[in-house]
Each structure stands twice: as structure tokens, then as C-alpha cells.
Amino acid sequence: MTQSLAAFARSTWLQYVALFQWATPLGYFAYKVVLPVTQIVFFVQLGVFATGPGNALYFALGNSLQLTANSGIFGVIATVSNERQYGTLPLLLGSPANRLLTFMSRSFVNVLDGIVSVVFGLVVTAILYGLDLRTANLPLLGLCIVVISITTAGLGLLFGSLGLVMRDSIIVANVVYYGLLILCGINFPVSRLPDALQVVAYSLPLTRGVMAAREAVAGAAFGQVAGLLAGELLVGAVYAGLGYALFRLLEGWARRGGLQEAY
Amino acid sequence: MRSLIRAAWRSFEMSTRLRVVSPWAYLNWLVFPVIFAAIGLFVLTSSGYARVAYGVLGGGVIGFWSVTYLDGGNSIQEERWNGTLEQIFAVPTPLVVIVIGKILGSLLLGLLAFIPTVGLAYFGFHAVLPALDPLRFAVSLGVLSFSFFIIAVALTPLFAISRSAFTVLNGLELGVYGLCGFMFPVSQLPQWLQPISYALSPTWATRALYASATPSASGDIAGWWLASIGLSALYLVVSVALYRFVEVRARVSGELALA
Amino acid sequence: MPSDPPFRHAIEVADLRKVYTTTRGTFRRTKVENVALAGIDLAIAPGELFGLLGPNGAGKTTTVKVLTTLLLPTSGTARVLGHDVVSATGDVRRRIGFVFGGERGLYWRLSGYDNLRYFADLYRIPPQVSKRRIGELLEVLGLAGREHDKVEGYSRGMKQRLHLARGLLNDPDVLFLDEPTIGLDPVGARDLRVLIRGLADHGKTIFLTTHYMFEADAICDRVAVIKKGRIVAEGTPSSIKQLVGDIGVVEFEVDTISQEDIERLQGLDTVSSVVVTERELALVVTIHCAQPAEVMTQLGRLLDGIAFRRVSAREATLEDAYVELIGEAS
Prior knowledge:
The complex is a heterotrimer.
Chain A: H1 2-19, H2 25-51, H3 56-66, H4 68-85, H5 89-94, H6 99-129, H7 138-163, H8 169-183, H9 195-202, H10 207-217, H11 222-255
Helix pairs in contact in A: 1-4, 1-6, 2-3, 2-6, 3-6, 4-6, 4-7, 4-8, 6-7, 7-8, 7-10, 7-11, 10-11
Chain B: H1 2-20, H2 23-44, H3 52-82, H4 85-89, H5 95-111, H6 114-125, H7 134-161, H8 163-171, H9 173-179, H10 194-198, H11 201-211, H12 221-253
Helix pairs in contact in B: 1-5, 2-3, 2-6, 3-5, 3-6, 3-7, 5-7, 7-8, 7-11, 7-12, 11-12
Chain C: E1 11-24, E2 30-44, E3 49-53, H1 60-67, E4 75-80, E5 83-84, H2 89-95, E6 96-100, H3 112-122, H4 127-140, H5 156-168, E7 174-178, H6 186-201, E8 205-210, H7 213-219, E9 222-227, E10 230-235, H8 237-243, E11 248-254, H9 259-266, E12 271-279, E13 282-289, H10 292-302, E14 308-315, H11 318-328
Parallel strand pairs in C: 3-8, 3-9, 6-7, 7-8
Antiparallel strand pairs in C: 1-2, 1-4, 4-5, 9-10, 11-13, 11-14, 12-13
């Protein structure tokens, strides 16, 4: 047990290093600091221009929370496509390692990274736009952040598995990342979307979690948002499950020789 | 001279043909602009249609910009992966001629971004531009194209010698949208940021573009055109030095090859 | 066409040095100097097929890149057809062609013909001329009929011949080939060597780098051996072989051999080097020595208790001379 835990920790750390081995320190800084700050500032200024300065925090909070997708979507998909690119996937599949554990470890590092991203976003929001968390339900907000980081990574796992068969999975990552900006109540309430898109929005991670987090910032108690969080977790679990099922399916398919393209 | 024009034309043709089969191009001219247009339109129409021009055109301007300049950078990265970067460097045609051909291709592709975004505004939000002054609008778009073209041509050699330059500028994308006023006026920005905005040539062209599409807009549109063109000319001078620097730098360090 | 300054040698290199400076570390940046060329001299006559031999990292590619204007030397001079490669890049680029080995360097999603036409325009060749020349090259290089297929469907040999066609588009006087047969199957490599020899016979100056000794032996007029950025030998293939004297080679196979045994072999007066290479299921020990017969008689005594087999003695090949030179200069 401790052995597999150590293996888990090691593979987690290695994946984080591998994830950013393309980046120079400057590139890493651009991706992890400049991009989040500019995203928050851009959408806040857009929102203030459209709706007045009173709403700055709505936009800042939404975008800070969405930053978890930077890790959950880009990170998870890149972890998988890295393995494809460097040809390490067959080694992994050929090893006796526990499949589920291996699969989960790919997302774990990105969940941690996602939590850090959101906290960073909130700090930026506090500094630039005076976010005041004194009246907030902080433990609940923390819980919300953990939950959305897990559920977003769940969605990332599904697309990561798809990435095994697609050459340009990072393009899909881009579409999903920015798609979440429209659909999940980040910059405007989900209720403004057309009905059909609202259905899509509620079947995505983030939507309920962001609502819950907004409530937590306003000081809501756990009971008031428990339903939202449960729904959020359920959605994330469904995507992660689909991702794992797809992963196993592709693995079997590849072993029968039907999927040369995957490697 | 004729052989140089032919080289530029062939570079234009080749990069366009390579782009048609690259999914990245579709992401940049179709998907991204539509996503930004959608967010912009949802946000900007939440309190009436007074600012709708920024929503109708903003996604298109963003798409136009990112295709023009990111595609130049992308195509240099692709040449590197391909192993062709050294070859195009060692031909008797100057690098700038090849780059001009490539960027002209990007520019045309970038203009396509206006089609899905304006379409989304019209069909999805019933938003139109009631006060469009066609002549001024056309000139403004021309000035904007010129400013994008010059910046893309000027920055592309940086991507040839530095792999991280592209990553860094990629990370700054949203910052550029804000600084150049692509989706909201520069006056929205904090005071201390505005001088940076005013040093960027697209800022003035974008301002002219929105003024020519907004009812009762006032301002010295012709002066803004001149400001944008003047800044572009300045960039051009700097970029000559940059090309010289890159030519030498690449030959000192051998960075054109993929290690 | 601009006229060339008078020159005796198609390629002339004097005391050429190239030092790469790289910085390491993120916070404490330290400069690391890496000497790729430590001062080399070369003189290659017009029409000569010259081979530069050396192990990986010896400086072969750096030499080619300096001569093709892709790299600036740190010091020293290099002239191609009398033009300085540092300052007269335009004149040099117009008159040379170059091909780097391997499959990269082509636009795979386009046809072979498109690839050639693109580079013809970048070489600023008038369309009438380029059309005719592309046709000829496709014919000569055995690509005719496949020129409109996408490059991704070509075999390695075809890709390499397409590379060669690209390198010949501007009818260069000097052609640089950096390990052109790398990754080719034996038949494809032989065909390519025949083509290269043919080009030299038609008067082109060819600068070839390789680490296949037999390749240089087979086609080069003259070779130089480069090691750690220095030329350690130069001459015709046969003169290089003579350089290492009346040396012979003793070879045998063993399952295992200890370091002490190797040292004992090296201790013999007549032995100049002992190289152990792995072959399928066995180790091959190659002994370069004077008087091979004498060494053979001593093997049994020196390697007491070791089962060795397939003992043979032979005359030195260029490869042996090369191994000798490379070993000696270390």
C-alpha cells in the first residue's frame, strides 16, 4: 500500500515536470501568471464597460474560479498527449501498474495545480478589485474550489482519453477551455443562455460549483449549497467514469491492433 | 525584383495551402473569434444595445488579430519542426520576403473571422450596426489591417530565434486585446496602462473602426488613422534592425535547427 | 550572373574555429563554452569529391553549416568559390546547394513537385528554367511519375532523392551533403552513392560528411578525418590507410572478457588499440597491431581459460585506419 502510494506520488511529480518541460521559466511564468491575470482583467473591464463598475467582482470571481480549467482541461489533456508524443504510452500500458491508479494519477497533479490557480486568481482579485472575504464562508469556499478542481479534471480525463486517438487534442483543449467561459456562468448567469445551451451548461462541470462558490463568498451556509455541490460532484464523476471507460476501451482496441494511430 | 515578387507569391501560396489542411487555422479564424464574440455579445447586450458595436465587431477584430500574428509565429514554429527553417534561411531570397508572403496569407485568412462573428451577432442577437459609415469603416479596416500586417512581419523573426518568445506572447494575448481596445474602449483601463495602449498602432485603428460604426461618435477619425500609420512606420524601422539582429544571432547560435 | 573573384580552391578554410556559448541554470546563470571547431584548415579543388569523416559530435555538421552560411565562425576564414561565407552570403547561397540527411526538411503534406517549385522560386530561378530543370531532376533521380504524390507517402529513399533534387535546383557548383545516406536501406544508400559519384564526375565539387567509412572509401577522391573539432588526418583514402602503417587487424569473438584481459592485450608492444564491440550474442574484440600473426600466436597464452572463437587476421580497411586515428588522438 505504501509502495503504491509512493509510486503514485512519484508518477504525479514526474508528470508535472513533464507537463512543463516545453516551457522556459519565462514561458511557465507567462502561462501560470500572465495569462490568469490578463484573463481576469480583460473580462472585468469588459463587464464594467457593459454593466457598470458595481459588477466588477462578479466577473473577477467567475474568472478566478474558471482558472482551475487551465489545469483541469489543458493540464490533463497535455499530460496524456505528452505520453503520446514521447512514446511512453505503450510502456505504461505494458506495465503491470494498476490501470485505475495510473489513470487517476494523471489528473491528480492537475487537481492540485488547479486549486493553486484559483487561490492565485482570488488573491489577484483581492488586490486589484478589493475582494473582501471577511463575510465569506471560507471553509465552504475552500470546499467549492476543491470540488470544481476535481470535477473539471474529470472532464479533462474524458478529453484526454479522446486525445489518445486524435492528433491535435490540444486544439480540443482550447475549445473546451473557452467554451466553459461561455457556458458555465463565468461572465454572465446561465439563465441568459438559450434553453438548449442551458441544458448543456448544467451537464458540464463548473456550472453548479461556481454558483455554490459565489454563494459561499456571500456567506452562505453549507446546507444552502449542498445540493449544488453534490450535483457538481456527480457531473464530474460521470465524466471521469466515461473517460476511464473510454481509456480501457481504447487500450483493448489498441492491443488487438486496431489502433495504430494511438501510438 | 520580379523574382522577389514571385518568391513572395509562392510563399503566400504555400503557406495558404499548408494552412487549409491545418486544424489550428480553423481554431484561430473560426472557433476562437466566435467564442469571444459570443461572450462579448452576451455581456455587452445585458444592459441594452448602446455598446453593441463592440460585440458585433469585437470577436472579428480579435480573430483577425490572432490569425494575422499568431499564424506567422505558428508557421515559423512549424518550419522548425519540419526542419525547413534552415533551408528557407539559406536561400538567396531575404527572409523578410518569405515572411511577407506568409503574413499576407494570414491577413486574408484573418479577415474571414468577421464572417462567423458578424453572422452570430445578426442571427443570434439580432444585433446590427445601424450607424455604419461605410467609407470611414473601410478606411479604418484598411488601416487596422496595415497595423496588424506590420506588427506580424516585424515580430515573426523573433519566433525564428527564440522558441520561448512565442509562448510568452501567447500568454499575453488577452492583455493585447485589452490594451488595443478590441472589445471595450481603452479609457476603461487603469490610467497607468493607457500610455502603453496609445503606443500601439492597432489601438488607434480600432478606435477609428468603432467610431465609424457607432451612432453620434465624435472624434478626429482621420487623426487616428494617421497616428496608427505613423506608429506602424516606426515599427517598420525597428523591425529592419530586428531582422538584421536575427540574421546574425541565428548564425551565431545555430538556433534555427531543432536541437 | 555575378562573376566570382579568382580562386584556386572551390572551398578554402583557414584556422576555422566555432565556439558555442550557452547559459545554464535558471537563477545562477553560468556560461558554458563548447568548442565545436578548434581551428581547421581545408582546401578542396574544383570538381573534387571530398569526404569529411568523424564520429558524432566531432564537428562535421558545424563545418557544413559554416560553409553553407547557416552559422558564423568564431574566428578564421572560409571561402566558397572565392566568396567569404561570412560577408558574401548572397553570392555563396546562390552558387551552392546543400542536403542534410534524414527525413525532415520537406513539406510532407505537399507533393514532391510543389516542394521543388517552392524552393526554385526561393532560389529565384526564372520559371522557364526551373520548369525544365525540375523535369530533368525528377527524371535523373527516379522520381518521375510520383512527383504529384504527397511526400508523406514517399519511401525514405525517395525523400532523400527529393532532398537531393532540391539541393540541385539552382545547378550549384558546390554541393554539401551532410550524412546523406543516414537511415537509408543498403540498396537505397548504394543508389544514392552512385548518383553522388556521378555528379562529381560531371564536374560538381562535392563536400560530403559521413561516419560510414566504406562510403568514403568507395566514392571520395580525398578525405579528412575530424575529431573533437580538429583534423587528425587528410589525404586520399589509400594514403590514409597507409598512414597507420603496415597495421593489421586481429579479430575474435568471446562471450565475456574482463578489463584485465583487455589491458593485457593492450600491453603487447605491437598492439596499438583494442576495441570491444557488442554483436548478437557475443563480444567482438578487434586488435589493431603490427605483425598480426605474432599477436595471434600469443592469444592463447594471454587469454588463458577464455573460450574465444572465429579468430581472424586481415589487412586494415579505411575503417580500421579511422578507428586507429580516432583512438590515437584522444
